[in-house]
Design a protein that fits this description.
19 helices; hpI Integrase, Chain A; alpha+beta; elongated; 8 strands
Amino acid sequence: MAKVNFTAARVAGHTCPGGKSQAFLWDSKAPGLGLRVTAGGAKAYIFQGKVHGKTVRVTIGDPRSWGIDDAQEEARRLQRLLDDGKDPREDAAEQRAAHEARQVAKRREGATVAEAWADYLEHLRTKISPKTKKPRSERYLADHAALAAPGGEDRKRGSKKTTRGPLAPLMGLALSELTAGKVASWLESEASVRPTNAAHAFRLLKAFIRWCDGHETYSGVISADSYTSSKVTGALPQSNSKAGDSLQREQLGAWFAAVRGLTNPVLSTYLQGLLITGARREELAGLRWDDVDFKWRSMKIADKIETETGRIIPLTPYLASLLAELKRINDTPPNLHDLSKLEAKGEKWKPSEWVFSSKAAADGRIAEPRYAHNQAIEAAGLPHVTLHGLRRSFGTLAEWCEVPVGIVAQIQGHKPSAIAEKHYRRRPLDMLRLWHDKIEAWMLEQARIKFDAEASKNWPQAVGAA
């Protein structure tokens, strides 16, 4: 292996002969230092030597970045490692590992709650839930994001700004600052303003801290008693249902009269639908006409638990009659004057895909029915009942009809709570319809609403056929 004294001219003029993939030029001054050039013209200083009888080759770097003196000094350093019986590649790997360990330690020390929370959300988004064995729902993920949101952004609807989430005050802290004292102080502050939200946020915070404790980057950073300390548990508010947030049997007449008297048929039907089905407000608001089957009297609505398939519930006779009227209104074209206005804007009229449509809403469906419901409640002289209270009312009033608890839970979309319900009950829609019709008929009877359910069985087929 011939050696030459490396000079700038020799390094620059070294080329790879034709027919070869690479060629080497060896330095006579620094043992083991070589210059490699490939057929494509790429050059690099290399070092070659032996340790424990085995040849070792290490790339030093590009001649455009390494001067000859620097390359020679690096070759001498590598030779000294060989003389000590050390493999330079192992030494480099140890250095890389040490550097990565320092970076991890630095990140652990400086990581904020917000940074770890972002990693936690990515984990929730990409991993299967160990409890349900399914991906987390978008609603579940959005709930986590909203609880930590700083607020102050423009709302999608209306001119007001968004409010901050209850976890937002913790996001700027370092993870190591998430102590029992900090958590207790935060809980006391949040619970004084919105106790139910604070209790819910604390449950999510506990899950986050447990995740951090099992994560290789964040393990051991957060104090072990950050959520178990008596300081924290003593500040934790009780998360109870609102007392009295439910319609009583004797209030049905006044409630139905007020809601049926609303001038907007969409809102009127929607509110009655909430009570008659016991559905969650967003489940019913997101109902499309394609999800309504008049012929077989069923509805497919989005479900909090069965996020992929949704759930199918009965379409009771009275509610079906209300939806049929909405369908007629929805499918009726506007008058010529309104049609000409649309054409002038370059738009074409078409029926809405939403059952509970709204021309004023950005996405075409009702967004805020609470105002109309509050008006109806006030007009009826009834105690305040929330939209979720109507769902609670369905479950409570169904007991008057002696409906099996599992039937009510399946209609409302509650998770099965007993072994028999989970594994041995597969109720067909016909069975649900039998009981659901009884619940609706009983409600109408208490409200003194005359409705001929038998006569109504003739027209659903016509609507479905149309």
